[in-house]
Amino acid sequence: MDNFLFLTRIDYTLIVVSLGAALLGTVSGALGTYAVLRRQSLLGDAISHAALPGIAVAFLLTGSKTPLILVFGAALAGWLGALAIISIVRLTRIKYDSALALVLSTFFGIGLVLYSLIQRSGNANQAGLDTFIFGQAATILKRDVITIGILGGIALITMLILWKELKLLIFDEGFAASIGFPTRLLDILLTSLLVIAIVLGLQAVGAVLMSAMLIAPAVAARQWTNKLNLMVLLAAAFGAFAGVSGTIISSSTTGLPTGPMIILCATLFVGLSIVFAPNRGLIWDTIRQRKNRRSLKIAAGRLLEEPQQESE
Amino acid sequence: MQALDSKAIEVTDLTVAYQETPVLWDIDLDVPPGVLLAIVGPNGAGKTTLIKAILGLVRPAAGNVLIYNKPYVTQRRIVGYVPQRGSVDWDFPTNVLDVVMMGRYGALGWIKRPGNRDRELAMHALEKVGMENYTTRQISQLSGGQQQRVFLARALVQDATIYLMDEPFQGVDATTERAIISLLQELRENGKTVVVVHHDLQTVTDYFDWVTLLNIRRIASGPIEDTFTTENLRETYGGRVAFIKNR
Amino acid sequence: MQIGNLEIILIAVTTASACALPGVFLVLRRMTLMSDAISHAILPGIVLAFFLTHNLSSPLLILAAGATGVLTVVFVELLQKTKLVKEDAAIGLTFPALFSIGVILISRHASNIHLDIDAVLLGELAYAPLNRLKVFGSDIGPISLYVMGGLLILNLAFILIFYKELKLATFDASLAVTLGLSPVLIHYGLMTLVSMTTVGAFDAVGSILVVALIVGPPVTAYLMTDSLSRMLILSVIIGSVNAVTGYFLAFPLDVSIAGSIAVMTLLIFVTVFMIVPNRGLIAIARRHIRQKWEFAQTMLVIHLFNHEGLPEAEAESEIAHLHEHLQWEPTFASRVVRYALNNRYVSQNAAQLILTDRGRTIAQRALVQ
Q: Min CA distance, B93 vs chain A (Å)?
């Protein structure tokens, strides 16, 4: 009976939103793997905040809310933010974390000022820009899904084509350069792919939660496998699954916003993976340690016995 | 093959600076083919930088590097590289065979994926370093010595004429050290040129036949017998080398 | 100026100063991202405390949120300790999850909670003076001024009392341990202060811009001085300047004051970065140009020195072929030679360069260091 009721509620909007969330989860899960492995997890956080002024400027210049235009503005600003972080670290003695925090918060401030300017101007079209700050998966429309599908698809295909190049770049940059891979170019490309994943996700989960969309699926996936290709695949699957389940749960009751629900689902996967995953997981680890201790005890016992036998 | 009289590596007037601090001053270095060469010098002498400059990984402020009379860019395929073991994240999700296959990436070129032949070559290299039973082992579960063997196998797979190795003996056990050195000597017997950044002065005379003493500038370079002298060592280390074996 | 505006400026300056002080230690200890995490993660703490007190300005709120902040730190560290998650990922996982819980709690109970996600994230300084503190029925000023003033005093007191310990724990944690000081205690003390200051400030500037207040001034001051005490003082001054100029930027434009303060934080950082002596961009560029020529001349004398008295010396010191040996642009090489001749590092003998005594000394000195 419950199931039946649930099924009737699956309407067109829900399908569109779920599809959008699934696509987003796939793209950010797969590309987030690279961010996590490069220990750049929080770069995503900075980029997602730094993207906001870009959205505001794109809107101020064109007066349009076409997703492609806003995404373009966001990507440009996000890129600028990443560049600012790298430049600060390179040119001053300020460390990476401080540069990241500075860019993240001040770029967001610029976005906020521009955003309040737009509000003051009373532009009738302005409603909806704040979805990029807080995220509102429920507002995903068919055209958004198409944008996500095309741009995300391009990003994923690029990733697959340059699979071995990107893999070597992350694992051993020096070796990659020594055999002639253009590491700087690949680095720029990888950051660009990350920027694409982030700006696509902003609308659904918002600037604040976007970093978790990148990190959580990858961290969960890492616990289950020791292979990069499986890790990317699993992360994409976890991302998609978190997207869909978060959307469905939030649509089942009122007062459960979609973005946070998606993030909580993804975080739940992380928790389960850390505890239960074979080999790496905590339970597995505890069992192994206990076993080790027991065999150590036996070995120690033997060692203790031996000299006594000798002395007898 | 290359002309016999040509130099495997020819470094002329090489100066490298990070920011505005010089790391290498006007280095001249000729490495003849078929030697097993140790680059020796105190910490901060620029040993790693010299290797990286030869590989084109750092841009020199002045000077030039030639590999068999041609710039490195055109000679990449005949140079194998073993970076410092600590320069990579060993928790990366990959296994031993996969890392060794990375040695084939340069030969494969863009986009192409490694195939069966590359796998065979990688297996062969793993046998050479005695790691053939570890092919599917996750790299984070290797000991320091095993990690070093894997890196060495990756360089072997490059099937190079010249090998540049950055501290391959760092943090490895005695067995591995012996295995590595006999492998390097075998490479030399096969006419390869092997350049090794080395830390342990005690073993230089046992392991190598050629040595370069470096401390920001080149102090001396040549066959062990002529070059590895107390006088040169004192110049390199600033008179703090009382522990050298008398030859 | 209206009294309301003056109060806004006062609150802004007090908040900025209170945030900048612990920020100095976060920047030096490379833990600024923890402040980002804490400022988001305290949301559920605030909401739960609100359920208990039904009062947004209750001091209990600050304590509860402070506790949540410390809990966040503990949680991130636990996650790291499993060795399954690296530090950056651990931070990036923890705060969105806690923030999500906060958002969900708010929207579940939207009817009986007057907390607005907008306000939490973005803050609105302009409304800060509206909440008044009344003692025996008489209005003695805005509550947030007292809250932030109290936190400022608390931070100041902590730093003054534990100055020595903080300094040691920041620059040499292992020495601190051997001297019997507990870096762990200092660490958690600092994190508690950051958490409480963040809660106090989020009302006015929101949870994202509070990071600009915490990180911006210390980072700017870091470019100006090497001394910890001076860095602390400079940070407070810079934070105050950011706050005041931010206010005056926002006022005529009628835009978000907190946002403007963040904009000014960036602008002042960039300005300082440009003009500060020694570490500034302009100073770096000028030094770079000067050193480029000095460096090139040194390279030249070392080159001549290295080949002096050797059979190949003649070929190596020929002016016309110098650029080939050193792989320099011919024009660059001839300019270096001209400078070196002017400086009497070298002298010219027909087509050859000959090292002067002065040039030889320079080469030797450069090689010895």
A: 4
Instruction: Count the neighbouring beta carbons within 10 Å of the beta carbon of residue C184.
Output: 12
pTM of the model: 0.87
Range of weakest confidence among A71-80, C33-42, C103-112: C103-112
pLDDT band at C21 (very low <50, low <70, confident <90, very high): very high
B73 touches chain A (CB under 8 A): yes
Chains with ≥3 CB–CB distances under 8 Å to A: B, C
CA distance C100 to C96: 6
Residue-level pLDDT at C2: 63
Choose among B12, B60, B61: nearest Cβ to C295: B61
Name the residue among B57, B110, B111 with its Cβ closest to that of A174: B57
Helix (H) or strand (E) holding B166: strand B162-166
Complex ipTM value: 0.90
* Residue B48: closest C-alpha in chain A: A174
Distance CA C116, CA C99 (A): 13
Q: Is B216 in Cβ contact with C306 (below 8 Å)?
A: no
Longest dimension (CA), chain C: 99
Asked if residue B242 has pLDDT above 60, the reply is: no
- Average model confidence (pLDDT) for chain B? 87
Partner-chain contact B57 A165, CB within 8 Å:
no
pLDDT-based confidence at residue C359 (cuts at 50, 70, 90): confident
Query: What is the mean pLDDT of the segment spanning A199-207?
Result: 87
pLDDT of residue B3: 47
CB-based contact C125:C160 (threshold 8 Å): no
Segment A21-49 mean pLDDT? 93
Name the pLDDT band for A174 (thresholds 50, 70, 90). Answer: very high
Closest CA to B48 of B168, B136, B185: B168
The beta-carbon neighbor of B93 closest among A162, A163, A226 is: A226
Q: Which residues have C-beta within 8 Å of that of residue C228, sequence separation ≥ 6?
A: C24, C28, C167, C170
Average pLDDT over residues A87-114: 92
Closest CA to C139 of C150, C126, C129: C129
B55 touches chain A (CB under 8 A): yes
Contact of B72 with chain A, judged by CB distance below 8 Å, is answered with no
Distance CA(C117)–CA(B6), nearest Å, equals 73
Closest CB to A42: pick one of C91, C110, C260.
C91
Helix axes A12-37, A183-224, angle to 10 degrees: 110
Q: Does C36 touch chain A (CB under 8 A)?
A: yes
CA-angle at B120, arms to B115 and B125, nearest 5°: 125
What is the C-alpha to C-alpha distance for residues A205 and B124, in angstroms, rounded to an integer? 50
Contact between C302 and C363 under an 8 Å Cβ cutoff? The reply is: yes
Q: Is the pLDDT of residue C249 over 70?
A: yes
Quote the CA–CA distance of C275 and A135 in Å, as a whole number. 39
Mean pLDDT of C230-252: 94
Q: Which chains touch B (3 or more CB pairs under 8 A)?
A: A, C
Residue A311: band (very low, low, confident or very high) from pLDDT cuts 50, 70, 90: very low
Asked if C179 and C168 count as a contact pair (C-beta separation under 8 A), the reply is yes
Which chain C positions have a beta carbon within 8 Å of B28's beta carbon? Answer: 306
DSSP letter string, B112-127: PPP-HHHHHHHHHHHH
Contact B81 A228 (CB under 8 A): no
Contact call for A175 and B138, based on CB within 8 A: no
Neighbouring CB atoms inside 10 A of C307's CB total 20
**Nearest CB to A101; choose among C36, C99, C103:** C36
Is the Cβ pair A116, C255 closer than 8 Å?
yes
